[in-house]
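Help: read this over?
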Amino acid sequence: MTKLIAFCTIFVVAVIFSIWEFRKKHVHSNSAHKHHHGIKHKHGEGFSIDLYAYTSHIRDWSSDFKVTFSVIVMILSIVLNNPYVSVVIIFAMAYITVVKGGLSITEYLSFLAIPLSFILLGTFTIAIDFSKEPIGQYNLYLGFCYVFTSLVQLKKMLFLILKVFAAVSALQMMTLSTPSSEIIAVLRKVHMPKLILELMNLIYRFIFILVDVYRQMKNSAEARQGYCDFRTSCITFGSIASNMLVVSLKKANAYYNAMEARCYDGELHFLEEKKAIKWNQLIAATAFIMFLFLLWGIM
């Protein structure tokens, strides 16, 4: 009971502080906020993640600091394996992304909804099981077998969801505030193999290019009644899938020609901005990590 009261107190203080900080920032930096209002996230418009990263208010933070901090927090959320720690990480990452980064809460939740759906589907099988006899605390008869679960299994599923969601929140903080070129630059500094870095960059770019091409093909098909019934939808889907292969090969050739025109010699180079790590950010990150360890020890 004492742990629950302490946790609720921490949660309420964090929420009040976040709201107060958000309101203060909204009033004093309204003009800086305006450029975000023109950005609308639509599923399928691929480069919007990088667009949010470039317009984030914390983009001037050192990319070394953001990547290192998010990776450390992600590892701690997995290693410490504590639901209270996971909840604190979720709210802390949301605070950095929404309040400090200036991303609207609606857009942030929209981004989190995608991984959350996969997390729920993946963990649902942990909570339920099947049996011919009603052996669980909660049983549902389907006519030929029972679907059963228990408080222990539900608790296990909830804790796993919180742990995974905390790790995803840490990575979302990094991707929504750091452009992909800066993340790759940080990985290059830690001597990750060049081949992996180039594949990461090319795959990342090609995913969005192909998604954009698919969206254009789908819009064209819809304009021509390509989805008017089930049979036509199947034919349209097959046509788009076959055309995607041809278009992807053409895009790959165009991409390679563009790289060669820019003196590509087997290694990709990006313009890197030098951003120093500020002492207040370093102290705040250290204090937060120590707080996570303290919370883990208490709870």
Summary: Confidence is low (pLDDT under 50) at residues 27-39, 41-46. The beta strands are 129-131, 138-141, 146-149.
